[in-house]
Amino acid sequence: LALIVFLAAVLLVGWNMWSVNPVSITRLWAHGGWLPHGVMGLLQSMLIVIFAYSGIGVMATATTELKNPRDAGKAAMWVVFGLSAIYILSLVGLLSVVPWFHVNISASPFVSALHVMQMPILVDIFNAVILVAAFSVMAGTIFSAMLILRNMADVREAPRIIARGGKRRIPALMATSIGVLIIIGVSYLLPSRVYSYLISAASFFTFFNWVVILVSWLRFKKQHRDDHELYRSPFIRFEPFTIWLTIAAIALLTVFSLGSFDQAMGGLAALSLTIIVAIPYPFVAHKRRAQHMADPTQVD
Length: 300
Description:
Helix content is 68%, strand content 0%.
């Protein structure tokens, strides 16, 4: 809604021929606006672009709460195409007001554009919306993490105590909140760089998750090839070729992203955390599964 209001403001200013800074579509290609740093700049920026869409994974997690899981397909279509359209149009509006070489990274570029359009009331509203949006993203992430932790605890791949608490999931919420507090503490230790590191690390985890999901789907489909009731998304075409092509594209973007120092540091952090979890995981998972098979009612 905030981006739609911003687009409406851009259109209003664009129609006002007496505006001090009228909207001009020509700013989009001013000073080499199309790929000003070449194809390499585009490829290195994709890691941050992907981060803007990584939250759609919450939608997949939330399907466990749906009465009709098939509705997830409709939700995916609206979310992916709706967000893409709003993001692209809002960026076109933004760069029609503030050319790319004048964008100030120390503040929200949309707020800067509203200042240029002399709309101080919308500036305050937009700042409030950004704050609320940040909390909503955190709430969605906590919700997703809680469900994942709870499901892992149910199959003995996380401490059994996390599975307690009923529908309120209090132990899972506490465990997730501890992680949030750790990140807040790190942000105080590395205030100037932690944002880039966190975005990069989260994006690398997103790449990894997407590859795991795609490979899991190929294996799942192979095991259920005779299941005619199996739901298949209408967006899947020409598989497995398109799936392997997507995996190759993700691998290529990962390599190019490592060319940036901040993104390379985020990649190193993501790799370190992956190794820390991966090394003990087979032993812990095997032990807990063995205990569960011996006595399904046993509580750790």
